[in-house]
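Service request form, structural biology core

Requester: graduate student, group of Dr. S.
Request type: structure prediction, single chain
Budget code: on file
Notes: please return the result as structure tokens.

Sequence provided:
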Amino acid sequence: MYRDIATKLVNAIQDGQFEVKLPTEAQLMAHYHASRNTIRKAIDLVYQQGLLRRVQGSGYFITTIQLQHKTVVNLSARAMPSSNLHPRELVSKILTFDTIHSDPELAKQMGIPVDQELYRVIRLRYWHNQLYCLEKAYYLRSVVPYLSTEAINQSIWDFIYEAYGIGVANSDDYLSLTNLTEEEAQLMQLGHGDTYLALDSCNYYKNNSLLDFSHTVFAYPDLALYFHTTNLSNP
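Core staff response, request fulfilled:
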């Protein structure tokens, strides 16, 4: 329940319903008909996405994430079901959707044994009629036994959450500048060797169990990727 409330809070912030700060815990408890513990867990989840800053004795204030002349995407919130902080109106062009077994190179990248059965999804994604990214993703079939064609044309994570009740608990993310391989350049219709920003992610659900590995090359103009980091040593 707290995840659903967190998503509603995120969307309310994005819609401008809360422009300066969140309502009090008591007000949120009454509005969502939830316990104080549930509301606190929901607020904490929103806080982890970098949307709130806590002021002792004054509550939670809304964080403004912006860079002039940039399109800012909050990757800290990309695993939240139905969140508007990560593009949700992406149009997908599916290039590959099949089942493979991990070879030594992929097994090393994912930290899994060789010959594990995986769903492979390779797709171009478009945002506002412009190329957003090339995404290559691999999902463990031991965790996700079934993926639908409809899901891979929309949000795979939303499908996994709705079908299996699994959400991303944490991720290992590696940002780098990459020179397009001949294959990538051909798929993206860009120049071979051109430099773009790439994100390699290993995503984990409960108990640090691996859910998927993805390699994403971003091509959207003036794109800025936002990550939120919390220093747990601070009170």
